[in-house]
Design a protein that fits this description.
Layout (H helix, E strand, L loop, with lengths): L12 E2 L10 E3 L6 E3 L12 E2 L7 H4 L8 E6 L5 H6 L8 E6 L2 H15 L8 E5 L2 H8 L5 E7 L19 H8 E11 L2 H12 L4 E9 L22 H9 L3 H6 L2 H8 L4 E8 L1
The protein binds S-adenosylmethionine.
Length: 280
Amino acid sequence: MSETGLEHSQVDVVQSSGDEAEIRFVTSKRSGYVARAHRNPLAIGGFAVPLSPKLVTWTGVFPGVASPKVRVVDIGSGYGGLLLYLATRVAPDCCVLGLEIRTAVWQQAHQKLLELRSTCGAYRRVAFLHTNAQRYLWNYIERASLDALIFAYPDPHFKRKKHRQRIISRTLLPLYAYLLRRGGRIYTSTDVEALYEWMHDRFEESALFVRKCRLIERHGKSRYNPNRVPESKPIEDSDEASIQFFKNDPYAAAVRDWTDEGRRVSRVQGDKFLLVYEKV
Ligand SMILES: C[S@@+](CC[C@H](N)C(=O)[O-])C[C@H]1O[C@@H](n2cnc3c(N)ncnc32)[C@H](O)[C@@H]1O
């Protein structure tokens, strides 16, 4: 298996050299795997990637699925909890793909998936690939092909000089819109109020998206940000339309509450901020 999680025979690859500095290693309590605490999403290289989405043979990625089509992508899928939760709940013809930048984290999610696939066929419609989504998402996914792009509890990159590493940005939103079909949606959740405000402002200033849901669940514990500069205008609280959307949408509650990070935030009674925007 290659670095991307795809067999090399399944893709036409460009092999690029790793070029980023190691930052810090942490040992996961789950398994003793050693995982880097962070990888630089702006770094070029370090991954073998397909030259074009047309060169990816998805039948190798979703074994046993006839004509697989990826319709949902979870960016920064971490240990994979969200897609494993969704596997048995999404439409039978829908394949869901998680992309994760950290090697050991991706390995654990992939390993768990392989074990689950032998117990239930629905897990064949889930796959995790190891890549830098911020750089290489467009090498895998075709234009206007997605129903949903999910950013559950993305890294907050607190420091102002690191804001350009944030995965929702002015530059990236039009590129995400390119991958979504009309009516396709972006889901974001976070427990960091300053990041919520940042993502909200990026969506609101974009002409490519309309808001479907803005939901705040407060328990009084938003993750502390020492660099937070209070925003000039507070964002309004959840409205009735958002509450109704949350009740009826199949992904909204999952993205907020059923990811690994979402479960952790529930345990510590942290605040949760959910945004859903639709491509116009
Ligand atoms: C805070 S964790 C959240 C994980 C998961 N979404 C959840 O809610 O449990 C953020 C994850 O995004 C991954 N990540 C950050 N930047 C990424 C990128 N450019 N491409 C792929 N994964 C990325 C990190 O390695 C990390 O596992």
